[in-house]
Amino acid sequence: MENNGIRTLLIAAIVIGLAAGAWLFKDVWMPAEPIPAEPAPQADSAEPDVPLDPVYPVAPIEPRPDDGELIPLPPLEDSDEYFVLALIDLFGADLEDMLADELLIERTVGTTDNLARGRVPERIRPVGRLPGSFMVSGSDETTGYFINPENFARYDGVVTMLERAPVADLMDTYRRFYPLLNEAYQLLGYPDAHFNDRVVQIVDLLLATPVPDGPIELTREKVLYEYKDPRLEALSGGQKMLVRMGPLNAERVKSTLRALRAELTATPGPN
Questions:
Q1: Strand partners, 127
Q2: If both were cysteines, with which of 8, 54, 93, 206 could 16 make a disulfide (CB 3.0 to 4.6 Å apart)?
Q3: Closest to 55 in 3D by CA, of 170, 257, 195
Q4: Is residue 125 a contact partner of residue 26, using CB atoms and an 8 Å limit?
Q5: How far apart are CA 211 and CA 208, in angstroms?
Q6: Residues 46, 233 contacting (CB under 8 angstroms)
Q7: Measuring CA to CA, which residue among 4, 145, 11, 19 is closest to residue 86?
Q8: Which residues lie closer than 8 Å to 255 by C-beta, 6 or more apart?
């Protein structure tokens, strides 16, 4: 299994919960050397197959009466500082030390897109790893390897951070930065696609993740652990990581994803 981890979705991600969501999905199966930061890789232009018009259009953000005039968004290449401030406002100052030094929007988009694939490359993730090491019970194939239930507690703080961010504020931030998120997504190789449609696809995929109600057995034929159950091993990278959080945390994340999905798919009202 790969050597690594919404409220953005995810997220998504995000988004899935945006950056916080991306942090949830970037744990490691074993220690690894740091990988130099790189831009998100170019994706196969044939995937995903999407219509020219968005299935789920995103309404532009409107300033609240007490907020004054919105500051114009910077160009994508100069957006890191502005995006960091928005994320800190959502999730608290502790998040800043976890974030990558550059290309945050590009990394958030790349991570979200890759949650549906077999793995999420560490080099494109917008945040660092969870504290501590991945814990396994059992010492060999005779006794079997299992995810140690104590490992689930490593996610408690992150999931709590995700839950504390009001969905309305998450969506305001998402809509505010959506032009840049969509630009970054199209630069991955989807020039006619729409990021919000992809986010909804990812959320639906994560919501469909089966959550085992018993011990989760692993196998280790080489260096990395894999799920012994072929049905779990066949899941996408994002789904595998959700399973690794444990059933209680997985359901907490799914609860937030359901609330986000309702907002992500809502029909925009008149301006």
A1: 99
A2: 8
A3: 195
A4: yes
A5: 9
A6: no
A7: 19
A8: none
Helices (H), 53-103: 80-91
Per-residue CA distances from 55 to 63, 111, 128, 184 (Å): 25, 21, 33, 19
What does the pLDDT profile of the chain (271 residues) look like in tens digits? 443 343 333 334 334 444 445 545 555 443 333 333 334 444 443 455 555 789 999 887 765 556 656 678 899 999 888 888 888 888 777 666 666 667 788 888 888 888 888 765 555 454 555 667 778 887 766 678 898 988 888 888 878 878 888 888 888 889 999 999 999 999 989 999 999 999 999 999 999 999 888 899 998 877 788 899 999 999 998 898 889 889 999 999 999 899 989 999 987 655 4
- Amino acid residing at 219: T
Domain ranges, ordered by start, for the chain:
10-134+152-215+237-264
**Could you give the C-alpha distances from 224 to 28, 94, 99, in angstroms and in order?**
10, 31, 26
Cα atoms in the Cβ-side hemisphere of radius 13 Å centred on 247: 7
What's the CA gap between 188 and 87, in Å, rounded? 23
What are 219's strand-pairing partners? 226
Q: Indicate the angle between helix axes 80-91 and 156-164, nearest 10 degrees.
A: 90
In terms of Cβ atoms closer than 10 Å to its own Cβ (0-12, 13-18, 19+), residue 187 is: middle
The neighbouring-strand residues paired with 136 are 147
CA nearest 126: which of 138, 135, 114?
A: 114
The number of C-alpha atoms within 13 Å of 55 and in the hemisphere containing its C-beta is: 13
Q: How far is CA 151 from CA 21, 29, 267, in A?
A: 18, 11, 40
